[in-house]
Amino acid sequence: MMWLAATSTEDLAIPCTGDATGLPVQVAFVPVAERREPASDEYHTAAWAVDDGQDVIVITVGPGSAVVLEAGQYVVWARVTSAAPRKPVRRSGSLTVGV
User: Fold this and answer.
1) The domain spanning residue 36 has which CATH number?
2) Smallest Cα–Cα separation from 15: which of 31, 2, 30, 28?
3) Range of the domain at 67
4) Is the dihedral of CA 60, 62, 67, 73 positive or negative?
5) Residues 6+ apart with CB under 8 A from 15
6) Which residue has the higher pLDDT, 62 or 99?
7) What pLDDT was estimated at residue 53?
8) Distance, CA of 60 to CA of 46 (rounded, Å)
9) Which one, 14, 16, 20, 36, has least CB within 10 Å?
10) Which is nearest to 47 in space by CA: 28, 29, 66, 21?
11) 8 A C-beta contact, residue 16 and residue 78
């Protein structure tokens, strides 16, 4: 589980397994209460990085960024967008924003 203050803008590092590093990746955040997968237009462009020797997906979240989330709990989804004919989507954790 990840936690982020509602007033914070920072890079969120999302652990990811598999061999997709270097391929275009996107991330979506769906409120837990909605119990669904994200729609295609809910995804945001992200990037790959290495954190403590582990491949992670990185996306900037918070006020002033392209991804501003209200206080609440979210399911984090990641998808690789250029692995034709495959387009893997993975539930990648949870995020609590605010108290």
Assistant:
1) 2.60.40
2) 2
3) 2-97
4) positive
5) 54, 56, 92, 93
6) 62
7) 86
8) 8
9) 36
10) 21
11) yes
